[in-house]
Amino acid sequence: MDVSFLGGPQPQLGVGVVAPFDFALDRELWRWVPDDVSLHLTRTPFVPVEVSLDLARMVSEHETLDAAVQALCAVSPQVISYACTSGSFVGGVAGERAMCAAMVQAGEVPSLTTSGALIEALREIGARRIAVVTPYTKSVTDSLEDYLGEAGITVTGRAYLGLTRHIWKVPYRDVVDMARAAVVGATDALFISCTNLPTYDVIPQLEAELRMPVLSANQVTMWAALRAIGVQAVGPYQALLDPVARRGPAAMTGAADGPVEGVPGPTPEAAFAGPPAPPEGEPLDGLDPPPYPPDDTGGLPPV
């Protein structure tokens, strides 16, 4: 059969992705990407270190980034994203900016990181007080909070799992339980950290229950990378991706000042209709919420 009349495959825009060696959620990234965009992934070299601040520093070294970016440039991406939250916040705000500069220098292509994309996304939705959920240990979670503080973001509550490996195996139910424990007090949004933590399907559920925008590491990475090339990320009802959806939680949390001209309010069918679930355990004033779960793995699979 002669198919030459078809003229070849549909032209594609390219997004380069530098991921840590243990990244297991390639498919999740693709779910935010429209059909006319292709992802080109490369991984950092393997190092025999568990998830920790040491690993975060190793996978974000400029020499490592330089090699990864040069490899990606062989397929001419329009933008390159470094898809690792801890690797891009471990050096603070200055470290994240230096990483972007190093990637641009290596490939002469616009570049961004997950942590930089997070700050951009928080500004987009007008959130300055957020709850944080992570699969990390306490020390890595503390480093994330330090990074956010440098950027002018207040962490109102947090929960973490204390894992050092196999993060991609965490089920959605544990993410939901952590979110319920972390959201306390006046909070503008929830952030679920770690690009190796599955979040795509749980975001709409949590936005409906908590009545606030819910951001995740992979979501903000893809949103920022696609926006950099003038493309809209796709996905179910998510406040970051849909300005109409955003009006519901923003109004409820005070993250926006009244209605925006030309933007309709939430419809009766909006997913934010349900009341928020009460937190499992209210922390004492001035203290962090305890990590979830306190002394067990919360039903996680064996690691």
TrEMBL record:
It comes from the Bacteria. InterPro entries: Iso_Racemase_Enz_sf (IPR053714), MaiA/AMDase (IPR026286). Coiled coil: none annotated. Residues 258-274 have a biased composition (Low complexity). Residues 252-303 are annotated as: Disordered. PANTHER family: BLR3294 PROTEIN. This is Putative decarboxylase. It comes from Streptomyces lydicamycinicus.
